UniProtKB/TrEMBL annotation:
Residues 314-387 form the RRM domain. The gene is Mthfsd. The lineage of its organism: Eukaryota, Metazoa, Chordata, Craniata, Vertebrata. This is Methenyltetrahydrofolate synthase domain-containing protein. It comes from the Eukaryota. GO terms for cellular component: cytoplasm. Pfam families: 5-FTHF_cyc-lig (PF01812), RRM_1 (PF00076). One of its GO terms (molecular function) is RNA binding. SUPFAM superfamilies: NagB/RpiA/CoA transferase-like, RNA-binding domain, RBD.
């Protein structure tokens, strides 16, 4: 028998894994698959997107921003069919912030349908600069999970939160600009409020294939970019952030980055983003390179040979590792933070690693040290692993 819908106990990563697993196992997942690591596409997404037309907020809106994810294709189509100005964020914000989707004059239904696809977003888009004076009346985002109270969990890369913060920063959205998410019914879960960070975006409406939920969420949305949570690596990856930062600096705002904060640096929580520094710190005993794709890279620390094969260790899960990260870079970062596991199990293809420690106290300290660590532009997730036994 199939498991029932996911329950929302545990961390954000537990919830993501449960939702992805459930969508795949219950046959609800749609192309592109597997849905793991993505804003998942699901059966009935088009139906859920159609409900957008029923919302007053949509009828009133002139400019609608919709994320580029596959399950939101129907929302992009609805905006184009209703002759709204459609803005789509550029993937990973590599260039600018938005593209305006401009269908050719006299576009047929078929052409509009094409404009709403990811290929169409590339072919029919006009980049909109910071001075494009966008005034977004409605924001549509994808989610991995969402609660009826409006708490949202994305895929863990923080782009939706960052896009929203940037829109606030450039004056494109106001505090009362409605935010809509479109998900399958099984993605609507109870989410503990303590899992939310102050930079997390909340939603006002949830559309599923069977219902429309108004969350009446009172939690304030992010008030702009929280520079102390941005790493220099992320700044390097998102050119438009640099522009916004220099503007805000000129306006007299504190734009100190995560890895420039003396308080953070002193407690060894700085984001270690400079790969040259990492390379210089790599001691000869670090294994260069990384494990073959998908294969866990197991390693015992030679400093603790007597612990080899011991199964009384406590494991720490480290998730959201960037795809480009090598095991040697992770180890170098760990050494900088004086986090010394007795064993490291590297699962780069799954963007995660497990660190094993002698006892729970050491593991807890490691989790604290890893809070706020950012590598390759990704904020890593660190928490005690549920049941990880790495024998082999």
């Amino acid at each position: 028998a199939l498991a029932g819908p996911p329950s929302a106990a545990g961390s954000k990563w537990d919830i993501r894994e449960k939702v992805w697993e459930h969508l795949e196992a219950s046959g609800l997942a749609e192309f592109p698959r597997p849905v793991h690591g993505r804003i998942p596409n699901f059966k009935g997404s088009l139906q859920a997107c159609c409900s957008l037309r029923e919302l007053d907020a949509f009828s009133r809106a002139r400019e609608v921003k919709v994320d580029p994810d596959k399950p939101l294709e129907g929302a992009r189509l609805a905006a184009l069919q209703a002759r709204k100005t459609l803005l789509v964020p550029t993937p990973r914000l590599r260039t600018g912030l938005f593209n305006r989707i401009v269908p050719p004059p006299g576009a047929t239904k078929e052409v509009l349908r094409k404009c709403a696809t990811s290929q169409g977003v590339k072919d029919y888009s006009v980049p909109l600069g910071l001075d494009g004076k966008a005034k977004v009346d409605l924001v549509v985002v994808g989610s991995v999970a969402v609660s009826e109270k409006g708490w949202r969990i994305g895929k863990g890369e923080g782009y939706a939160d960052m896009e929203y913060a940037m829109m606030v920063s450039m004056g494109a959205v106001q505090e009362d600009t409605p935010v809509v998410t479109i998900v399958h019914d099984c993605q609507v879960l109870d989410i503990a409020e303590e899992l939310l960070d102050d930079h997390d975006l909340t939603v006002d409406y949830i559309l599923t294939p069977t219902r429309t939920i108004q969350t009446n969420c009172k939690r304030p949305k992010p008030q702009g970019i929280m520079w102390h949570k941005v790493s220099s690596e992320m700044l390097g990856k998102i050119p438009i952030l640099k522009t916004l930062r220099s503007r805000e600096k000129q306006a007299g705002k504190d734009v100190t980055l995560q890895d420039e904060h003396p308080a953070l640096a002193n407690t060894n929580r700085a984001a270690l983003s400079n790969k040259k520094v990492m390379a210089a710190n790599t001691q000869p005993r670090a294994t260069p390179g990384s494990a073959p794709m998908g294969q866990p890279h197991m390693e015992n620390d030679p400093v603790n040979p007597r612990l080899e094969g011991s199964d009384t260790t406590t494991a720490v899960f480290v998730g959201n590792l960037p795809a480009s990260l090598r095991v040697s870079e992770l180890k170098s970062a760990l050494r900088e933070l004086q986090v010394v596991p007795v064993r490291l199990s590297w699962q780069g293809a799954q963007h995660r690693a497990f660190l094993e420690f002698r006892d729970k106290g050491t593991a807890d300290r490691a989790v604290s040290s890893l809070q706020g660590l950012s590598l390759g532009g990704n904020s890593l997730r660190a928490e005690l692993a549920k049941t990880h036994r790495s024998k082999g």
